[in-house]
Amino acid sequence: MKNVIDSFVSLGHWPSAGSFGFNTDILATNPINLSVVLGVLIYFGKGVLNDLLDNRKQRILSTIWNSEELCKGAIEQLERARARLCKVEMEADEYRMNGYSEIEREKVNFINATSDSLERLENYKNETLRFEQQRAINQVRQRVFQQALQGALGTLNSCLNSELHFRTIRANIGILGAMQEITD
């Protein structure tokens, strides 16, 4: 690197050959060269630069306009979604309230139906008990009557002769037939 700098420094010591030559003084030539290059660029590149900037400006404005349209569309969709959400929430509250009242109604109906079923079962139980009691009483009566009849027959058989015995049996059969007709 030092050699490159030394070669530029040594160029400054060349003698000038007439009116045309190299000015090797970097500090003096750079501002002039830069101003010439900038002047040429500004003069010839002004139209191209303006066109590039205008195109860029139009694209930016178009993008902004599209973004604003999208934003408006999104805001409209958001408002519709909010309105729909509010409507759905109201319907959900209504269904919830209807559901609660329906549950209460079903609960009351179930309790009433269960109470009716229990009452019917209790009545059926009571009727069954009365029927079984009546049947037991009738069975006891029949056994008592049979035993009494057997006892009476035994006494009659031992005390009566056969003709009296047959008349008594016929009379008792008549009584039993009448009793059987009454109980049926």
Task: Give a quick summary of the entry.
The chain has 184 residues and is mostly helical.
Outline the structure in words.
It is a single chain. With 184 residues, the protein is mainly α. The protein has a domain at 37-149. The chain has three helices and no strands.
What is the tally of helical segments?
3
Report the mean per-residue pLDDT as an integer: 82
Q: Could you tell me the strand content as a percent range?
A: under 5%
Poorly predicted spans = 7-17
Helix content: over 70%
How does the helix and strand content classify structurally? mainly alpha
Outline, from the CA principal axes?
Answer: rod-shaped
Count of extended strands: 0
Order of helices and strands: HHH
Distance between the termini: 144 Å
Radius of gyration: 65 Å
Q: In this structure, how is the largest beta sheet organized?
A: none
GO molecular function, one term: proton transmembrane transporter activity
Family: Belongs to the ATPase B chain family.
Membrane topology: Single-pass membrane protein
InterPro entries: ATP_synth_b/b'su_bac/chlpt
